[in-house]
Design goal:
The complex is a heterodimer of chains A (693) and B (120). With 693 residues, chain A is an alpha+beta fold. The radius of gyration of chain B is 13 Å and the shape is globular. The chains are: A alpha+beta (693), B alpha/beta (120).
């Protein structure tokens, strides 16, 4: 039977890259001296899996390299060696190196082993290894050409069966080696009363005439060395003159080594052939990029396909009947059902492209560690909103601008520990990455608690570069905006980290190419925040469907705090036309959706409707709706692209029944209703005053 | 059809072992760690178990020890997948009740050849 191992390569690469990510993340968590065994174990297992897989699938360059890594980790794990900062650095470098090796192998290129060999040598120095002790095991001794006869005494210990071994199969194996004479001794079998059926009382003496060497015989009994008395002696043929040279197997471990050398030969040839393949194939075409999809998404797809099949069966059944009025009705129903199913399926397939932003965030701990070491700054990286989903294509393109902004924060934003202490701050600077959905956008924030933008210097620089005139009156925000202008760089000297001639203008351009925007806000001495907003034409939203008059609107589930029936006695009117509900200790302004969207025929009495309390930008408001309908995931379609921008609406979606439904943009709605206008806060204060009175 | 339980935390190894055994006519169930394997093994019987050693949650040695203590697995061949560097693991595994071992790296043919020692 021949099995093409290449069918498992993709899974192997996938899991190896995942393993490397795990290693990297865990290594970054390690503080030498305080490491816990589980972390070391996790790192060890990842390395071990990569080594095992690469060996099995014939990627010897990877398995050889991983071997030294594994050895070091094993020693640390067993407590034979103390983890040092040098180890961590080397291990991190190895992760990079392995990633490069595997990436090259994945596109069937011959990997560059330069780095790998350097690193390997450094590991070997640490390990005090002289090379080649392990891998170069003795080849199996040359096949004995002529036949010889072996006498094999095999006397299992009574517990042999309990190890799961079976003498019968061993005898069959012997039989395959050559001509076998079997003598069985059953004198050890006790009386029936004392007979324990679990135990082995038989023993054997075989005479095997074979052309194979003794090690082939030893291999058969390899697993039971300790569970039986085994003696193999040559009693005829080539070595007859030597007489009975008894060899006690249990004291000889070369048989194990023989097994090793056999197994390594075949992958090596595989590697050679795959190396040859490389030259004929066009390099660097990474054709099969794959994405990981949550099993729940796949399950729901399967579920939908199931429904599709049912609908299809229903339709074909109708097709077989004679056409009558009733069949036409059910045909129409069936077709509607089919349309529904198809749409669901389509939407769910699109969902597969959505991935949590943690895919991008996960590369930052390492980046921050490396850069902060280079800069001699102490930095803590905080991540939030990692589960926010984002379209895969958008994700790939946002990574580079984010890297640039983070480098920038570390280099220019954060101060050195000394400066921080002098400014009365914690010596450890904090950089925070945050992501969340807002309306139809994903918002990514990169915050630091550094010195903030130096408006004075920015202005001077801008004047020097002729971007603004000295007499221009600029607000702080306008000055901050200048950093996004082409040809602007404030770093007094171009540094290795961020000042590579690529300015913030490129960052902005790249983000704008994604139909996004980037803004900065900054406070001197407190820090700066870069906010990236990206539209999500493909974004999926968990929505609450609500009824307003005859229309269905969708409220993003994430912004809903609670839904309730209004207790009319807790409502007070403030100002001209604003109702406020006292809810526990808060005052919630009530927004009448029918009013805002000018629909006729909605329920206007407060006590007959429902109030959906939503929150946005730390503002709570209550939305008055006729009824709550289903909750479902909806695909956001851009209104701008298909119609035009509508205030208070972030997008639209198509419901299961084919109708278009609008998605409410809470923060836009609040703005629209005028609650954020100056003076609205006073209204709430007034409401409180009324309540007290 | 003989039933085999294949346990490995690495998906590619699991697939390779599973695919090879299925092609050879075995009924294969896969598990990703010792604890999952143990739960499956308690629900249904197997004619042999092949397990990796280094796994999260529950490692292979523990799995073998647990299995061997179950009445249904008193005589069942329990094989472990080890690396060449794991000689002391072999002893540890044997002490836990392992029947034998398969040395990594191995190819499908070697796997089947070794399996013939305990299951036919």
């Amino acid at each position: 039977m021949s099995i093409d191992l290449s069918q498992f390569f993709e899974v192997f690469f996938e899991e190896s890259f995942e393993g490397l990510d795990v290693m990297e993340a865990e290594l970054l968590n390690l503080e030498p001296g305080t490491e816990d065994s589980e972390t070391i174990n996790t790192i060890f297992r990842a390395a071990h899996s990569i080594k095992g897989g690469s060996g099995t699938f014939g990627f010897t360059s990877v398995s050889d390299f991983t071997h030294v890594l594994e050895t070091l980790l094993d020693q640390i794990r067993d407590g034979q060696r103390q983890l040092t900062a040098e180890h961590v650095n080397l291990l991190l470098k190895s992760v990079d190196c392995l990633r490069a090796l595997l990436s090259a192998l994945q596109v069937e290129q011959t990997p560059d082993l330069g780095d790998a060999n350097d690193l390997r040598q450094r590991f070997e120095v640490i390990l005090g290894m002289s090379e080649g002790s392990e891998s170069q095991n003795i080849q199996e001794t040359v096949q004995v050409e002529s036949e010889s006869t072996f006498q094999i005494d095999f006397k299992p210990h009574p517990h042999l069966f309990k190890t799961g071994n079976e003498p019968l199969y061993m005898i069959s194996e012997l039989l395959e080696l050559g001509e076998l004479e079997t003598n069985v001794f059953y004198d050890a079998i006790p009386d029936f009363e004392n007979l324990s059926p679990d135990e082995c009382f038989l023993s054997w003496r075989f005479f095997l005439t074979t052309a194979r060497s003794e090690s082939a015989i030893k291999e058969i009994f390899e697993w039971v060395e300790d569970d039986a008395h085994i003696e193999i002696t040559v009693c005829g043929g080539l070595f007859e003159s030597e007489g009975r040279s008894g060899i006690n197997l249990t004291e000889d471990s070369s048989s194990a080594n023989a097994a090793v050398s056999v197994s390594s030969s075949s992958p090596a040839t595989k590697a050679a052939t795959s190396a040859k393949k490389v030259e004929t194939k066009k390099p660097a075409e990474q054709s099969t990029t794959s994405i990981r999809v949550g099993i729940d998404k796949v399950d729901s797809l399967i579920n939908m396909v199931g429904e599709l099949v049912i609908t299809q069966a229903m339709l074909s059944q109708i097709g077989e009947q004679e056409i009558s009025e009733t069949t036409i009705t059910s045909l129409q129903e069936g077709l509607a059902q089919l349309a529904h199913n198809t749409r669901d399926l389509q939407e769910n397939v699109m969902r597969i492209r959505m991935l949590p932003i943690s895919f991008v965030f996960s590369r930052f701990p390492r980046l921050v560690r490396d850069i902060s070491q280079k800069l001699n700054k102490q930095v803590e990286l905080k991540l939030a909103g990692e589960q926010t989903e984002l379209d895969k294509t958008v994700m790939e393109k946002i990574s580079d601008p984010m890297v640039h902004l983070v480098r920038n924060s570390l280099d220019h934003g954060l101060e050195t520990p000394e400066e921080r202490v002098a400014a009365g701050k914690d010596p450890v600077g904090i950089v925070t990455l945050n992501a969340f959905h807002q309306g139809g956008n994903i918002v990514i924030e990169i915050m630091d608690d550094g010195q903030g933008l130096n408006t004075q210097r920015i202005k001077e620089k801008a004047i020097a570069n002729g971007l603004v005139q000295p007499e221009d009156e600029l607000t702080a925000d306008e000055i901050n905006e200048l950093i996004f202008m082409p040809g602007f760089s404030t770093a007094d000297e171009v540094s290795d980290i961020s000042g590579r001639g690529v300015g913030m203008d490129v960052v902005r351009r790249n983000i704008q190419a994604l139909n996004g925007s980037v803004e900065v806000s900054s406070a001197p001495g407190v820090g700066s925040t870069f906010t990236i907003r990206l539209p999500l034409t493909l974004a999926i939203l968990d929505g609450q469907l609500v009824k307003v008059a005859q229309h269905t609107y969708i409220i993003p589930l994430i912004s809903i705090v609670e839904s309730l029936q209004i207790d009319i006695t807790k409502v007070s009117r403030v100002g001209k036309d604003l109702d406020v509900l006292r809810l526990r200790d808060e005052y919630i302004p009530i927004l009448r959706l029918y009013d805002i969207f000018t629909h006729q025929g909605a329920i206007e009495e407060l006590d007959k409707t429902l109030l959906v309390v939503v929150e946005s930008d730390n503002h709570k408001v209550g939305l008055l709706v006729d009824d709550l309908l289903a909750q479902q995931q909806v695909v956001i379609k851009s209104l701008e692209a298909n119609y035009q921008k509508v205030d208070g609406i972030s997008g639209a979606t198509i419901l299961g029944d084919g109708r278009v439904s609008l998605i409410i943009d809470i923060s836009g709605l609040i703005k629209l209703s005028g609650l954020k206008r100056p003076g609205s806060q006073e209204l709430l204060v007034e409401a409180k005053a009324i309540e007290v009175a | 059809m003989k039933k085999i339980l294949a346990v490995d935390d690495s998906a590619s190894m699991r697939q390779m072992v599973g695919f090879t055994l299925k092609k050879a006519g075995f009924d294969v169930t896969e598990a990703k760690d010792g604890s999952e394997a143990l739960a499956i093994a308690k629900q249904q019987g197997f004619d042999a178990v092949i397990s990796d050693i280094n796994m999260p949650v529950m490692d292979g040695i523990t799995l073998i020890r647990e299995l061997r203590s179950l009445p249904n697995y008193k005589f069942t061949p329990l094989l472990m997948l080890t690396t060449e560097s794991g000689l002391d693991k072999k002893t540890e595994g044997k002490a836990a009740g392992a029947t034998g071992w398969i040395v990594k790296p191995f190819n499908p043919e070697q796997l089947l050849a070794v399996l013939k020692k305990v299951i036919r």
